[in-house]
Amino acid sequence: MLCSPFRSATASLGLGRRAASTIAQKYSKAVYSAALSKSPQTLTKVQSELNAISNVIKEVPDLNAFVSNPTLSAKDRSVGLAAIYSRAEGAKKEPVSDITKNLFGVLSENGRLGETQGVIEGFNELVAKYKGELEVVVTSATPLPRDLSSRLETILKQSQAAQQAKSLKISNKVNPSVLGGIVVDFGDKSIDLSVSSRVNKLNNVLQQSV
């Protein structure tokens, strides 16, 4: 059963921002292991479902509010999850797998639906690692200019981490709270750099970090 690893993995964890991140990772690892133990095809299906659910929560304010409210009754949580599954199924109405439903059932039961996005992000990181993919997220206050983005991509491709990966995916995430700098996240590493500094400094930092 998928539920048992979820319960045992999170039973002794506390609260707080750091603990919440740890909690999300525990759920991510549990659902990843459950899906992969079935088959690589199941892993792909669960990933597709989780990404669809992530998009639904981001796009529908009521569902975003639903997962963020830990005070709802069991009946309300059940109705909310059914709505999420229905939207995630899309036009093809392909039923959501038991593994995905078990995940959200346990998150709901444990009052952890607020961890949903962190769980899905952690799951995607595990799948990327399994497939030999390296995903690099460059966070900046405004969209990066094309020339700077190209220079960053060139430097990143020369890093040891990128050369060891089967494929490299680079995306730019805009976060206005990142003032006067960029944050480069790859794998379990995060590098904070000043925009005013030379971009080639990134190459040296990457070489030291991997």
Reconstruct the topology from this structure.
Blueprint: H1 3-10, H2 17-38, H3 40-59, H4 61-67, H5 74-89, H6 98-109, H7 116-130, E1 133-140, H8 146-157, H9 160-164, E2 167-174, E3 181-186, E4 189-194, H10 201-209
Parallel strand pairs: 1-2
Antiparallel strand pairs: 1-3, 3-4
Please give a quick description of this structure:
The protein has helices at 3-10, 17-38, 40-59, 61-67, 74-89, 98-109, 116-130, 146-157, 160-164, 201-209, and strands at 133-140, 167-174, 181-186, 189-194.
Task: Provide a descriptive summary of the structure in words.
By secondary structure, the protein is α+β, with helices and mostly antiparallel strands. Helices cover 60% and strands 13% of the residues. The chain is built from 10 helices and 4 strands. It has helices at residues 3-10, 17-38, 40-59, 61-67, 74-89, 98-109, 116-130, 146-157, 160-164, 201-209; strands spanning 133-140, 167-174, 181-186, 189-194. It has a 4-stranded mixed sheet with strand order 2-1-3-4, sandwiched between helices. A hairpin with a 2-residue loop joins strand 3 and strand 4 (189-194). Helix 3 (40-59) crosses helix 5 (74-89). The longest helix is centred in the first third of the chain and has 22 residues, at 17-38. The two termini are 37 Å apart.
Task: Record keyword descriptors for this entry.
alpha+beta; four-stranded mixed beta sheet; 10 helices; disordered N terminus
Main sheet properties = 4 strands, mixed
**Overall pLDDT:** 80
Rg from Cα: 19 Å
Give the strand order, joined by hyphens, for the main sheet: 2-1-3-4
Poorly predicted runs are 3-20, 196-200
Beta-strand proportion: 5-15%
End-to-end Cα distance: 37 Å
Sheet/helix structural class: alpha+beta
Overall form: globular
Helix percent band: 55-70%
Number of helices: 10
- The SSE string, one letter per element, is HHHHHHHEHHEEEH
Task: Tally the beta strands.
Answer: 4
